[in-house]
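Reviewer 2 asked us to include a model.

Predict the structure of this chain.
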Amino acid sequence: MQMKDHDMNHLKGIYLAPYMQVATALIGKRRHSGGNMFRHQLDTMSILIDYGYIDSVLLKAAVIHDVIEDIPDFNHNLILEIDSEAGQVYDLVLEVSKKEGQTKSEFLRGIIEHGSMRAKTLKCADRISNMISMGFVTDPAFIERYCDETEFFIFPLALEVDFRMYQELIELVMTRRKYLEDSGYLDRKKEAMAGMRRG
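Predicted model (structure tokens):
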């Protein structure tokens, strides 16, 4: 759906550049699928805009959503001093950041049960970006685990937030599972499990 003029004018007034500057600290963080974490931040924001989300707090948080989790001893004042929405942005980033000692399943279950609508929306856009990049990952066990996690934890979020996101996530998971099938990974796994039972 093409962007309307009033949406463009709203986006024009969003103070994004300082948040992008904070996010450049992630340029050196490599991703399993190639590229770096800085690009992933902007990709997540573009997915939100693609789906028509122009909430300024949500978009600003998308641009920096991994800095707290991925940068050790990150100085949170770099966020809080940016503008009048910085406190809300920081709180949202905290919502989508896994705490130290927390398992991934505990973290995702917490968003399902207690997350704000902004946090759930951001997490869905984040996962769409991650699932798209999964097309460049060649580790089948990792792909399978990620698909399982997406179905179990992210599908319920997407169903609550945006059915269009839910549909895209289903398609992305299906393509990755098709890759696992076509590559012979699932057959090899089945044979290995059968061998373990016989042993």
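The chain has twelve helices and no strands. The two ends are 57 Å apart (CA to CA). We have added this to the supplementary material.
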